[in-house]
Specification:
By secondary structure, the chain is of the alpha+beta class. It contains two helices and six strands. The protein has helices at 2-29, 103-107; strands at residues 32-41, 44-49, 54-67, 70-71, 82-87, 94-101. Strand 3 and strand 4 form a beta hairpin. The termini are far apart.
């Protein structure tokens, strides 16, 4: 009987550990959006990901925005610009930072 209780306890602990790891990976994958700018300005940005899905986001007031590694403004981001947008962990529809790479910079490499 004791052997059965120990086995069930170990199985339950294993399931719990796997669940925690899967949940952590899910949170990491939802923490950013990678794609191209569709529209940017007035405190909002819409990014189209590689699957063609649009992500309409509010840009946080303290969001850091960079273009090719230099500080820039939201209005500097033009349609088609490649971006990686970090999302606010508490509000997945709010951008906490935006890193943009212009096509001209990528052609030089």
């Amino acid at each position: 009987m004791m052997h059965r209780v120990v086995s069930l306890t170990l199985a339950a602990m294993f399931v719990l550990a796997v669940s925690v790891v899967v949940a952590a990976d899910k949170d990491k994958s939802d923490s950013k959006v990678v794609g191209t700018v569709s529209v940017a300005g007035d405190g909002k940005i819409t990014v189209t990901d590689k699957d063609g899905k649009d992500h309409a986001l509010t840009v946080g007031k303290d969001a850091k925005i960079s273009c090719d590694g230099k500080e820039c403004k939201l209005e500097d981001l033009k349609k088609g610009t490649a971006v990686t947008v970090a999302l606010n962990p508490d509000h997945k529809d709010v951008a906490s930072s935006i890193e943009a790479k212009t096509a001209a910079k990528d052609k030089d490499k």
